[in-house]
Amino acid sequence: MGIIVIAGYKPKPGKGGALKELMKTHLPRLKAENLVTDRKSIMMEAADGTIIEVFEWLSAEAIQSAHTNPAVLEMWGEYAEVCDYVPVGSLAEADNLFSGFKPLD
Q1: Count of domains in the chain?
Q2: Which helix (H) or strand (E) holds 11?
Q3: pLDDT, tens digit, 9 for 90 and up, residues 38-54
Q4: Is residue 95 part of a domain?
């Protein structure tokens, strides 16, 4: 059984466009390493520019193996150049009963 996660990526100053481009490759790269399910991710943008992604890891073991996978570590390095990871609960929208975000295609 998979594990669905919600991740927040806050772009570094001037890196919003680069982050959005990188997001297009996230799931396909994880899929190429057999770490995620076939479930399509949902991506959205908070008012402050943070990108939120909901996606499904294949398993707890897949999450663990990602931390030693060279392709994933390389990808995470690319993310570190353009964003910081933030808890979704830290976003202003999380204070609302129904949190609304802008769809990201």
Answers
A1: 1
A2: strand 3-11
A3: 999 999 999 999 999 99
A4: no
